[in-house]
Write a structure and sequence with these properties.
Helices cover 73% and strands 0% of the residues. By secondary structure, the protein is mainly alpha-helical. The protein has one domain.
Length: 88
């Protein structure tokens, strides 16, 4: 769904909700719930946090602190080797 279609659909529905007090209260409760879920989601991060993690990864790579997949090795074998080496 395009942004324009989504925006127009949301505006249409907001106009309907705006005219009904009961729907406005239900929508307000649901929006608060969505925000709480987002705030508690450990996978959500700010742009600054994502860039910091990326910079840390680049710095580790430049220091040679990385794990390479050996020729003929599957990803899962490499992961198991990493876990064994670092006791993860």
């Amino acid at each position: 769904m395009s942004t324009i279609t989504l925006d127009s659909d949301m505006l249409y529905n907001f106009n309907i909700v705006a005219s009904d007090e009961s729907l406005r209260e239900r929508l307000a409760r649901y929006l608060r719930k969505l925000v709480r879920e987002r705030d508690n989601d450990p996978t959500c991060m700010t742009k600054e946090e994502a860039l910091r993690i990326q910079e840390e990864g680049i710095a580790q790579f430049e220091r040679g602190e990385c794990y390479e997949q050996l020729p003929g090795e599957s990803f899962y074998d490499m992961l198991n080797r990493y876990r064994a080496d670092y006791h993860v």
